[in-house]
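## retry 2 of 3
previous attempt timed out at serialization; input unchanged, resubmitting
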Amino acid sequence: MNEYTSPVPMPALDATAPEVYREFYGMPMFVTIPTGDLAASKDFWIRGLGFIDLFSAPGGEVTHLRRWAFQDVLLVPGPPAVEAAAQSISFSSVLGQLDEIATRCEDLIPGCTNGPHLMPWNSVELTVTTPENARVTMTAARPLDPASPQADNLRAIGFDIPLTN
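## retry succeeded, writing output
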């Protein structure tokens, strides 16, 4: 069996984010988001959330944004949601990125962020409402202390977590 290497780094307080992946591949998953202002949306996703414009089709039919490998978003012309949806899309981050992303997004659209918050499943999450009313969660895994309540919670639901590192 071949071993797959994820682009997401192992949880660590000083984890380093991988570079933006600029190659083309068959996308195993992506989200399509309609926007009434493609230029403004593209600007927010790039300057606020840290995506790149992998390519924009001539005539403004689609903008393909990417962050890390397998973090693809297609912005397309269309009416955006009237309000933020209950569901959200999550993108992996590292802990050192969350405050910076929150600051950049708040500079662009004050009040658009919630968090970062420590979650019971041992991640820290920042939720951002984009100009299209998409709810985007930037999530960063924390290193797991085997003696922590988070480790106890994970053990209680069936994860095999040793009592020591």
